[in-house]
Design a protein that fits this description.
alpha/beta, 10 helices, Arc Repressor Mutant, subunit A, 2 domains, elongated, single chain, seven-stranded parallel sheet, 248 residues, Rossmann fold
Length: 248
């Protein structure tokens, strides 16, 4: 089998199974594991998968631009937002990161809700300016125009000064072994600081983000208290439940 044919087979199997193992690919393709390892490295260098010990897993399907992400899974995000809203009550201090899923929560805040929101999201801060009861604290820092979020050392310094009740975090990639990861180093560092600054962490992730990984670590999977998702009945979510994580 030609190399191009092997690579095509690997990508198709990865899409179908959400993971590939070197040992299985060696048997399927009738080549050595060293050949499979080189094939996986080639695909990883091309940005087509994430190589892990013994095999590979997919990249997150997330496009980088905030505008692009805001157009995807809108019904699923609103469904997740309603679940998240049930966890909010008067008197809380809540961190909301710059994701489109967290923006969906803010869009359905009832006018009577009295909470304090700390956010690095320009759209979230702008929307909450019109909310009659919610106090808004914007983290400040350098604004990334594509992501529409503030980041950098100033953002992280401010976050380290607070202790929030909850942190709602939009997830790029979620994996039961590799944890929460992201595509951008600075954004991932800000999310890590948010995790460290809250008592409980709520991860908002559509099902296509499950079992994927990106290069930059945000936190261990056991740092997550609750996963809010569009389809909590998926079999793959059992791995998270076995780790003591609530899935809704």
């Amino acid at each position: 089998m030609l190399k191009e044919e092997r690579l095509d087979y690997i990508l198709k199997k990865l899409k179908a199974d959400q993971k590939v193992l070197q040992t299985e690919l060696s048997t399927d393709l009738q080549v050595s594991e060293d050949t499979v390892r080189r094939d996986l490295e080639s695909l990883a260098q091309s940005g087509l998968l994430i190589k892990v010990r013994g095999g590979a897993i997919p990249h997150s399907p997330n496009p980088y631009s905030f505008k692009e992400r805001s157009l995807l899974h809108t019904d699923d995000k609103m469904n997740m937002a309603r679940k998240a809203l049930d966890m909010l009550h008067d008197g809380q201090t809540v961190i909301l990161d710059g994701g489109t899923s967290t923006l969906s929560i803010v869009k359905i805040f009832p006018p009577s809700l009295r909470i304090t929101v700390i956010t690095n999201s320009v759209p979230i801060a702008s929307l909450l300016i019109e909310h009659p009861k919610t106090e808004v604290i914007f983290t400040g820092g350098r604004v990334n125009k594509d992501a529409q979020t503030a980041g950098g050392l100033d953002t992280m310094r401010m976050l380290r000064r607070v202790r929030a009740d909850l942190c709602f975090m939009g997830i790029c990639s979620l994996h039961p072994i590799l944890g929460v990861t992201g595509m951008d180093l600075e954004e991932s560092e800000v999310k890590t600081t948010m995790v460290e600054s809250a008592n409980r962490i709520m991860a908002l992730a559509t099902s296509d983000k499950m079992g994927t990984a990106e290069p930059f670590k945000v936190c261990d999977i056991t740092d997550i208290d609750t996963i809010i998702t569009d389809n909590p009945e998926l079999e793959m979510l059992e791995a998270y439940r076995q780790l003591g994580i609530r899935v809704v």
